[in-house]
Amino acid sequence: MDTVVEGAGAGLRVLVTGSAGFIGGYVVEELLARGYAVTGIDNYSKYGPVTKSYDSHPRYRFVEGDVRDVDLVTDLLVDCDHLVAGAALIGGISYFHTYPYDLLATNERIMAATCDAAIRALPGGRLQKVTYISSSMVFESTDHWPSVEGDERKIPPPLSSYGFQKLAVEYFAKAAWDQYQVPFTIVRPFNCVGVGEGRALGDVEIPSGNVKLAMSHVVPDLIQKVLKGQDPLHVLGDGQQVRHYTYGADLARGIVSALESEAAHNEDFNLSTAQSTTVLELAELIWTKCHGDGRRFAFVSDAAFEHDVQKRVPDVTKAREVLGFTAATTLDDMLDIVVPWVRQAMDDGII
Q1: I need a surface site. Which of 54, 131, 146, 242 has the fewest CB within 10 A?
Q2: What is the structure's pLDDT at 122?
Q3: What pTM did the predictor assign?
Q4: CA dist 109 to 69, 133, 230, 319, Å?
């Protein structure tokens, strides 16, 4: 399965909120590849103005604006068949601890405004469904793995304000359906890895040995440290944290497949690779990619953040069986793409 039908979106238009963001960029590319017309909206609050490869695409229109402007989003939705709700204030793990209130308050306002616009646009309009981008952090407080769709309502709520708000996104989706019959699909990406993510505005510099970082996302941060010659390599905590690193283009395929699927109506999906990797395994692979096999890998542990979840492992059965989606790109192949990009981005002063 897992195939892209050329022109599947012909004649349809999708509004993508947060289109200048990390995952948003991959989603726009996937939609355009499937033949959709795309309207993107972003206020550039995370990175500042950015240039995308598809900016001049004939089926892409960009609107610089704030998603909290309900009238603006409603006007954009009048001509759209689908809405991908991806806008959010988000950063790396340092954001969780530096801006806990801003994350909660801003993202609640973004989500409420997004739902308000969808509720307004639905009667008599073209809107078929809202696809909400949630997060693996809804499973932050679990004590059993893998996390299956539905566990988020059985386990204790997330402890971080970011995880709690992402769970609230899912409640918004279901409440908008319960009261106003706004159809939805919820997707939960796990640990997106890819290119195009710059230094976020407002990121707090985190000292990590002799290197100060401002991204606090484990893959680009580790690559930066290795490329800057850090030895031994500093890792957050003991390095035994388990993650499922998933390529951005794979996630975009899953998100758009969920958008298109009739079987995804009012359903939720974990979107992830099935492969578990510890931070130390990731660090050693990055080390080898950058240095070759001849240099001994050595590391030291930095103090862990409070909300550095020790284990996030999804069950991916539902996405495979219902959507025909698998995230097949290996971590090795991802790093072959991302390491050169980070090296060039460092040279260009982007990160």
Answers
A1: 242
A2: 97
A3: 0.93
A4: 10, 15, 41, 29
